[in-house]
Amino acid sequence: MSVADIVVVGSLNTDLVTRVKRFPGPGETLVGEDFQTYCGGKGANQAYAAARLGGNVAMVGQVGADDFGTAQIENLSSVGVQTDHVQRDAAQPTGTAIIGVDASGENRIILVPGANHTFAASQLDHCQNLLSGTGLLLLQLEIPRATVGEAIRIARASGTQVILDPAPAAPIPEEWFPSIDFLTPNLSELRLLTGDSLEAETPLETIAASARRLCHRGIRNVIAKLGSRGAVRITSQDAYHWPAIPVPAVDTTAAGDCFNAAFAAHRATGHTIAQAGEFAVAAAALSITKKGAQPSMPSRSEVAALIQDAKRPDQGGLTK
């Protein structure tokens, strides 16, 4: 196996997606407009997107010994992701996500972890060289905490940069903080991690001040993903805003995964944090213009074209 510039340790799920005009209420049955099956999972989404965006990527995780698992491996391989370290659990099904998407493009998800939750920390023993030899490690929270923690430990021992997407929303251990180079929460995840009352209309300066407390506890950079408001990078000293690029929203599924992947792919090719953030915001914008998770991931040339066309007059620093 060749050395990978980006290693993703995380989940692989099959997405079962139905579109509805609106979400049903308690006890209500609605007729869906269509149904599609996609390869997904936050880890696999990020690996797939990073490869589509030109990254040299390896995936580490686990699927079941079923057709969904085979499809996951074949789909990642089709875009050049190294899949040698995707293991199979004969006793568990491949993880599944049941996703509803309404007419505005918003989604609601029920996750069945399957083989993701039996992916133990000890199973990383065979890929220590891969984790130690990469430049960037991408992580999420859809596999056991002990496995995430072990991946962080192995990576940091060799100086690998760690990007953690704290999703699905959950507290993270304090001992991880000094090992996290980039934490990338959305607003609800940031609210959970800080305990602050942050809403969609909260001023960016207030959001930055809230996130900065995480930096004071050891995290080097917090990048708050704010959907239609773009993203803000916060450090213990300052903050920087990347405005969103307006696009017609079709399906927001995996937009956050696309952001993380694009940020990592651009950093892995030597670009600055500022350039990587701009690239990531544009990639995430493109991802919501198409249906599905991995099928919506753009190419590097598509992102570059959108950045070239976009007008960005209000991009810049925030007050402390």
What does this protein look like?
By secondary structure, this protein is an alpha/beta fold. Helix content is 32%, strand content 23%. It is built from nine helices and 14 strands.
Numbering strands along the chain, what is their spatial order in the largest sheet?
A: 5-4-1-8-9-10-11-12-13-14
Rg to the nearest angstrom?
18 Å
Look at the structure and give the mean pLDDT. Answer: 94
CATH class: Alpha Beta
Shape: globular
Could you state the CATH homologous superfamily? Ribokinase
What about the largest sheet? 10 strands, mixed
Tell me the fraction of residues in β-strands, as a range: 15-25%
CATH fold type: UDP-N-acetylmuramoyl-L-alanine:D-glutamate ligase
- How many domains make up the coordinates? 1
Low-confidence stretches: none
Count of DSSP H/I helices? 9
Instruction: Say how many strands there are.
Output: 14
Structural class: alpha/beta
Give the helix level as a range of percent: 25-40%
What is the correct CATH architecture?
3-Layer(aba) Sandwich
Distance between the termini: 45 Å
Oligomer: single chain
Topology as H/E string? EEEHEHEEEHEHEEHHEEEHHHE
